[in-house]
Each structure stands twice: as structure tokens, then as C-alpha cells.
């Protein structure tokens, strides 16, 4: 018995193509990604892909916009659920991992200027807002002046980035490394605030 093919709505088809693009990029890297490889992965024709995305760059920009929006929504929800200062640090470290860890699509796309230009102002604004939020929470939690809290946040950000990069290169357990990084940051902050 032949199965009847289900026609996807335009939004569902665009999402399917973006999902397949993300899978291909994570598996093979950005340099080898083509519209033709996407069509093959998605089991559609090349002209169909071009009906949705007029070029490789336009498709990758759409993928970046979607992934960055999802990243933002997930981070916002996690921050709103944070109950303790440690929870806030955990959200910040996790966010750094998702934003910077090798092997994920978001950092691959953000590092390409012709793709990242579509979210550049949003990246800057969100970065400033996140830094201000973390500085204010750190200053409040440890009764620090803003300059000292700013230094602590910058040091902590560096530790989170380094841990994300290290984990990606070594294929370590991400959640375990995030927890260890949070422990490291909290211990460091507590040591610095005693001085």
C-alpha cells in the first residue's frame, strides 16, 4: 500500500529545511554546506529550496536568526526560573556554552560576518544587557561596588568561555563541565570578596 505524501505548510517546510541545514552544518561543518547538499538531506529538489531561500547566505541568515531567537527564549526562561545567585551563574555559564561551544551551529554562524550581520545590533544589545544584569546581581549578592563586580563578571565570563572551548575540543560531558565551572566561578568570587 502506498503512503500518501503529506504536503507541508510553507512555515513547516521552511523549518524543516532549516532543521536539515543545522544538522548538516553540525555534522560536516559550514564550509561544505551547499543548497544541493541541503536538498539531498531534506529529500526535496534544489528548486524547492530556492523557492524558500534565494541564496545560501539568505538561508544561513534565516537559520542564525531562528537559532539566536531560540537561544534567547531559552536563556530568558532559565533566568526567570533562577532562584539563587548560583542558579544565575549556572544560567550564564550554560548560555556561554551554547553560544560558544564548538560543534553547535550558533557559534559557527556567528563567526561569519556576512551571516552574523543580520543580528549584530541584537548581539551587542543583549551582551550589554546580560553584562549589566550579572554585574548588578553580583554587586548586590556580595555587597560590592560596581567596578569590583564588573571585574568579577569579566573574569567569570572568561572562565566560562574557556571551559566551553575545552569541552568542545575534548568531547567531555557538557553538563558536568558546566557544574564544575559554576563551582569554580563561585569559589573564585567568594575568595575575591574575602580579600
Automatic annotation (TrEMBL):
DNA-binding segment(s): 34-53
Keyword Nucleotidyltransferase: no
PROSITE patterns found in the cross-reference section: HTH_TETR_2 (PS50977)
Pfam annotation, one family: TetR_N
Keyword DNA-binding (UniProt): yes
Domain HTH tetR-type: 11-71
Alphabetized UniProt keyword annotations: DNA-binding
Protein name: TetR/AcrR family transcriptional regulator
Species of provenance: Candidatus Paraluminiphilus aquimaris
Amino acid at each position: 500500500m502506498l503512503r500518501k505524501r503529506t504536503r507541508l505548510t510553507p512555515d513547516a517546510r521552511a523549518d524543516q529545511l532549516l532543521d536539515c541545514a543545522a544538522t548538516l552544518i553540525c555534522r560536516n561543518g559550514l564550509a561544505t554546506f551547499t543548497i544541493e547538499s541541503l536538498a539531498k538531506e531534506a529529500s526535496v529538489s534544489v528548486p524547492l529550496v530556492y523557492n524558500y531561500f534565494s541564496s545560501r547566505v539568505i538561508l544561513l541568515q534565516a537559520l542564525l536568526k531562528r537559532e539566536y531567537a531560540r537561544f534567547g527564549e531559552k536563556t530568558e526562561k532559565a533566568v526567570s526560573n533562577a532562584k539563587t545567585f548560583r542558579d544565575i551563574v549556572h544560567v550564564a555559564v550554560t548560555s556561554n556554552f551554547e553560544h560558544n561551544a564548538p560543534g553547535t551551529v550558533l557559534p559557527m554562524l556567528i563567526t561569519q560576518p556576512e551571516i552574523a550581520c543580520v543580528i549584530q545590533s541584537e548581539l551587542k544589545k543583549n551582551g550589554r544587557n546580560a553584562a549589566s544584569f550579572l554585574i548588578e546581581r553580583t554587586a548586590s549578592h556580595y555587597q560590592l561596588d560596581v567596578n569590583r563586580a564588573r571585574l568579577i563578571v569579566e573574569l567569570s565570563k572568561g572562565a566560562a568561555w574557556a571551559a566551553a572551548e575545552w569541552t568542545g575540543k575534548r568531547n567531555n560531558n557538557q553538563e558536568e563541565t558546566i557544574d564544575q565551572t559554576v563551582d569554580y566561578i563561585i569559589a573564585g568570587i567568594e575568595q575575591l570578596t574575602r580579600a
